[in-house]
Design a protein that fits this description.
By secondary structure, the protein is α/β, with parallel strands linked by helices. It has twelve helices and eleven strands. Helices cover about 45% and strands about 15% of the residues. A hairpin with a 5-residue loop joins strand 3 and strand 4. The longest helix is centred in the C-terminal third of the chain and has 24 residues. Bound molecules: pseudouridine-5'-monophosphate and manganese (II) ion. Manganese (II) ion binds next to loops. The site of manganese (II) ion (MN) has 3 residues, from loops.
Length: about 300
Amino acid sequence: MNDWLTVSAEVRAAVAANRGVVALESTLIAHGLPWPANVETARESEAAVRAAGAVPATIAIPHGAPTVGLSDSQLEELARAPNVLKASRRDMGAAVALKRSAATTVSATMALAHAAGVRVFATGGIGGAHRDAEPFDISADLTELARTPVLVVCAGAKSILHLPRTLEILETLGVPVWGYRTAAFPAFYVRESALPVSARLDSPRDVASAFAAHTRMGGNGAILAQPCPPEVAVPATEFEAWLSEAESAARAAGATGAKVTPFLLARLGELSGGRTLAANRALIVANARLAAEVAVALTS
Ligand code: PSU
Ligand code: MN
């Protein structure tokens, strides 16, 4: 194993024994959800992975040490600490050199998962192309999917994004977008968009076969998109009203770059009276469970 990477004993043993392992990201803990919902969701996700027979590997850079498989106390520290960096792929080197604590976004988590031999990863929603033409803003999650062979299980792309543009970029980059039991691309808190996925897959076994075939033929990352659980999903029209208000607030506050997504998610939580927060939590845990089922299917 790489000497620059700390991998927990449990994760290392599971990877060596070809058991199912699921990577979980930490930006949603440090920047996506408020305390204490963040630590509760992280623990529920780990429990959901275990219940499905796989090993959870939450990933972050505590005090400058890239780590796959955080301990529970590291997880809680990350959830409580102020001033945790939000690290995408490009930010990891400086965080390590300066011994800064950093949460990893989808791009950075994919890179570290791959370095540890973990093939399946669960999150809430991936980043993508933002709606405004100016300032121009496209997430590093998309290019990482193009280069790193990890399956990202999510509820689609965040509904704060320009979804048609995001899907076109993924097509250009050769990244499959599979719908789990749906032909319509899910839109995070909103169960479905009017946009098609590249293929519909209906079982963890089919997903495992498709991902194995994709990587065998030289493909890298892939997306498995599962709609938000129906009990907590938000209707599209209601969501659009909250979003335009949150976007005006973001412009007024001058939130740009890496600050945009956390700002919008927090504002949406307030505007919706906590409904987007409930949806976000539920979809993250549901994705962790599905990712574990796929990870187990990939090992047999
Ligand atoms: N899923 C969630 N909440 C989040 C994220 C995902 O439910 O906060 C994070 C992921 O880490 C993703 C990031 O990579 O949002 C996107 O940030 P940006 O738009 O700055 O690329
Ligand atoms: Mn961005």
